[in-house]
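REQUEST FORM: STRUCTURE PREDICTION
Request ID: SP-0412
Submitted by: Lab K.M.
Chain count: 1
Length (residues): 372
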Amino acid sequence: MILRNEVSIIGGGLAGLTAAIDLLNRNYDVVVFEKNEYPKHKVCGEFISNEVLPYLKKIGLDVESLHPKNINKTQLSTHSGKIIKGKLPLGGFGISRYILDNYLYKKVLELGGKVVKDSVTSIDFLDDIFSISTQSNEIFQSKIVLGAFGKRSNLDIELNRKFIKQKSPWLGVKAHYSGNFPNDLVGLHNFEGGYCGVSKVENDVINICYLVQYESFKKYKNIVDFQENVIFKNKNLEEIFKESNLLFENPLTISQISFEDKPKIENHVLMIGDSAGLIHPLCGNGMAMAIHSAKIASELVDDFLQNKISRASMESNYISIWNKTFKKRLQFGKFLSKLLLNSYLSKITMNLLIAFPFLLPIIIKKTHGKPL
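STATUS: Completed
RESULT:
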């Protein structure tokens, strides 16, 4: 039996669930495919810029009910531990993916959306209709498919995406901790081969998430050895880790994180969130970008389904708007990453910021957008 609906969203993470809620509010028949159960922890910085708050409220989401931490300050440190502090121009909030994704999932169900707990194995497009096959041999047909399957997926291989064929040097590690850390602060701390973000989420939990080049990590037997021999050389990080208690049985990891350019359309599938492109976590804006991309896609899908624009126009407009909105941020994020991972250049940069502190908010604005 073939099941039919108007919109299929492959991936029930932040971007996919947000797009589902937006389109359900517009009275479309939406199915979300997600192989994992809710709630679930993910490797993520868990900080969201306040730029997305107006949009979240518009689509009926009450983030405050989840008791996030309101964050308006930032702190940077180099390998040597030198610190610079500043204010976040727009501010943001700390919320775990465990809580947030589950909240969005329940909202999708509340609005009448369907969530299929299964893996998608193939997507075919013929005669202006998508056919989606799942691991349990079900077939769904849709007018629209949004790809929200994250940083890397088997579907990237199925769609023959170029970036998936290239090895990426990045490894992400994340865990929750108990301990003392300011509620209103997000810290970004450099160490040799990577950088680490620290901030509070709901329930006074500290989220510590770091990105490291695999070449640097593989020299050590395990995460504990790596942290003690590399991360703790930054005394700020050593103090945070040693004064905190791990709440997970083990830290979560994800390898092969790619920051290469990704096509925004693949076989007429509109890519949103990390499937469309990933900003370096040091910019602290990946979650906001995922939400914003869901908004852009939902508005264009609405125009298409109302026959206001053709499929070709929808696709070209999506690429154009996505690039206009995010391309410079991604480029600046890559530039910052290279700068901060070079010990000599990061030292010069930090000295410059200490001498001219007004530059820090300007740099932050380069990776963030205006309120939606």
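NOTES: The CA atoms of residues 24 and 112 lie 7 Å apart.
Reviewed by: T.R.
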